[in-house]
């Protein structure tokens, strides 16, 4: 009996020592960096991927040497079911708990896409297609079909998206960027409309957006936005045509080759403000908040004309005679057959 007791005590002691050794090894490995200083590994956790599968992924990527440590930590910590899908940048030094906490946080790699003031919807689609990390769900759709996936409030997609920089993560969709930028534009537009100068002859936020897009395209120097907007507002009030080149260019579409001619000004399109009265039917580009604000708070001078001086700025005139002289001075040599600008 004494011999049996001795054996059992020895076994218990051995098991205790083994458990202590395993525990000590576990805690040592748990707090030992699995990714060293200066090392970087990028891994992607897929939606629905199990904790064991993630552990095997880290093993295959050379992050783990002893996968059971991470599996044990997942069970002990209760975090094994809380990891979020995404693409993660593992930048050392990182321990197993730190790696798991990163996966739980969902702080995956982010990317940025910038929509620029003055861009057309075609430009936006081109930029979206360029970002490989975005999941493409609209690339084969027609513009109007894309618009329907975003909103049913409008009949044309041009100008409805707010120019800004948007952050996204791998496998976010290109459509999600459009939805976010559309919602942002609506928020900005409504806020600016609520604080507008009530004397501005625009009947709706959409009309404001149309005119703001023209102001955006005409503005080279940001300090001139309100002046340019003021010219257009006064021309509308007087029943004068806007006569602005960017609308002609937009109406020409792919036919425009970089030089406006007299024939272009005479050619009718719904956007040619040398031929139509009032505003074109839609915006012609993305308008930023500053252009929208300037459109709804135009300057109060008496100018009715402006012409580009060639340095990004414009010369503003109150009379046609003054304007013709300015055109002769600054720009007429650029126009085919020396036609006269009557902007």
TrEMBL record:
GO BP term, pick one: cell wall organization
Any GO CC annotation of this UniProt entry: plasma membrane
Keywords: Cell inner membrane, Cell membrane, Cell wall biogenesis/degradation, Lyase, Membrane, Transmembrane, Transmembrane helix
Top-rank taxon, per record: Bacteria
EC number, UniProt record: 4.2.2.29
UniProt KW Cell division keyword: no
GO MF, one annotated term: lytic endotransglycosylase activity
Catalytic activity: a peptidoglycan chain = a peptidoglycan chain with N-acetyl-1,6-anhydromuramyl-[peptide] at the reducing end + a peptidoglycan chain with N-acetylglucosamine at the non-reducing end
Site positions per UniProt: Important for catalytic activity: 218
Family: Belongs to the transglycosylase MltG family.
Protein task: Functions as a peptidoglycan terminase that cleaves nascent peptidoglycan strands endolytically to terminate their elongation.
Protein name: Endolytic murein transglycosylase
Source organism: Alkalimarinus sediminis
